[in-house]
Design brief:
The protein is mainly α and about 425 residues long. The chain has 20 helices and two strands. Among the domains are: about 100 residues; about 80 residues, no CATH class.
Length: about 425
């Protein structure tokens, strides 16, 4: 269960130097504490002033997950033992599974002091692509603790990047921003990528004021931040997520006035902002501008993913089916004999969700099998299959699909758990 807390009366304040977090009370014009008064606005002329960043209200995730299934490992551990050499051998073979097993054994045998800091960094980097995001966040937190506390090493910027990314992938926005503050405490100067991840956290937490504060802070502290298209795209997308579509349009117009042609990333971000507002017509108009080469780059897989996101939120299966057929033709055109181009994993999941709402088991099963050939099944695709079977009342298959999903280590959403409980009641088990 996710816990949402709200502490508007206190805010965390960062100052440079020294980098430390201080509790600040809001004061009124007489200088006395006033919990209802707005937070003071930092002086933009002061290069060391950082915006008030409150993250106590952001969503967090529980520190447990489904028990992952045990998988066989190679003979590397038995031949080389739990040593640094065995770990490096797993690195050379690009085998994260063996590497993590060796790393765990080194921890249990209290041999982590034999590792170089880069060994911990490599483990953190691999965890960012883990197929179970919540489990990856737990492992990443443990690895960072080993690096920082057990071994006494100072994490560098890439370590913070990896841990924050793992927290974001698991939906733990509060801990992601908390790690950003720890980075400031440690004296590390955040770069654009770190700020972008904080922007992502506030956007997905629906906190426009927090995202705007980080946006202004990044402009003051990172040279050339306003030239980064990814940051502009994140802020425009955040405007949609936070139900601030006029603000997103204003940012889009502000940037477009300085460019000869609109950047494709920015247009895709605005499509996603319209998607949240369920404005499919505006999203389709923007998508056509990309397909007609009126942007800096032609359409790609991300463009189709953005417009199908708009179809998903608008629940328009007919338009989505047409665009999906266009996407498959686009992939076939881009494919070569040596490289097969397929839609993005998230695009598959969007189509699965649309068909699952209608209980179209045949379409869901076909898409699930196609997706499984290119990507490892994720939580969204597995839940779509369970929902489709539940809508059709195919209770036995619904329970079997649920058990297979949990056996992979996925933590299902509450509505899926309730659906399977109903299926079990219908089956009398």
């Amino acid at each position: 269960m996710r816990v949402l807390t709200n502490s508007k009366s206190t805010r965390l304040v960062c100052t440079l130097p020294p980098r430390c977090l201080q509790r600040a009370q809001h004061t009124d014009s007489t200088g006395s504490a006033s919990p209802n008064s707005p937070p003071p606005i930092p002086d933009p002329s002061d290069p060391t002033a950082l915006a008030h960043i409150d993250f106590a209200h952001l969503l967090t995730a529980p520190r447990f997950t489904a028990k992952p299934r045990r998988r066989p490992v190679s003979n590397t551990i038995h031949l080389a033992g739990n040593t640094v050499e065995a770990l490096h051998d797993a690195f050379r073979r690009h085998n994260p599974r063996d590497a993590w097993n060796v790393y765990k054994q080194l921890f249990k045998e209290k041999k982590l002091h034999t590792l170089h800091p880069d060994d911990h960094s490599t483990m953190l980097g691999w965890l960012t692509s883990h197929t179970l995001p919540r489990l990856a966040a737990i492992h990443a937190s443990r690895t960072m603790h080993n690096l920082r506390t057990v071994c006494g090493h100072q994490p560098d910027l890439r370590d913070y990047h990896a841990l924050m990314l793992c927290q974001l992938r698991s939906g733990d926005y509060r801990r992601a921003v908390q790690e950003f503050h720890r980075m400031l405490d440690a004296g590390e100067k955040p770069d654009i990528r770190a700020y972008n991840m904080v922007l992502t956290a506030y956007g997905h937490a629906r906190d426009w004021n927090g995202a705007r504060a980080v946006w202004e802070e990044m402009a003051r502290n990172v040279p050339g931040a306003r030239a980064d298209m990814d940051s502009w795209a994140l802020m425009i997308e955040n405007g949609g997520l936070c139900r601030k579509l006029p603000a997103a349009l204003k940012l889009y117009e502000e940037l477009s006035s300085t460019l000869r042609k609109p950047d494709r990333k920015i247009v895709e971000a605005l499509i996603k902002a319209h998607a949240v507002a369920r404005d499919l017509n505006s999203a389709l108009h923007l998508f056509e501008s990309i397909r007609d080469n009126r942007t800096s780059h032609p359409a790609d897989l991300e463009s189709y993913d953005a417009i199908l996101h708009a179809c998903e939120t608008a629940d328009n299966i007919s338009r989505a089916s047409t665009l999906w057929a266009d996407l498959l033709a686009f992939c076939a055109q881009k494919s070569a004999d040596t490289k097969q181009v397929v839609p993005l994993a998230s695009t598959f999941t969007r189509m699965l969700a649309l068909h699952a709402r209608r209980g179209d088991v045949d379409a869901v099963t076909r898409l699930f099998d196609q997706r499984q050939k290119a990507y490892i099944p994720d939580l969204g695709s597995c839940q779509a299959l369970v929902r489709a079977l539940g809508v059709r009342g195919r209770w036995r298959e619904c329970v079997d699909a649920y058990d297979a999903m949990v056996s992979r280590g996925h933590m299902p959403d509450p509505d899926v758990v309730r659906l399977v409980m109903e299926a079990r009641r219908e089956l009398g088990v």
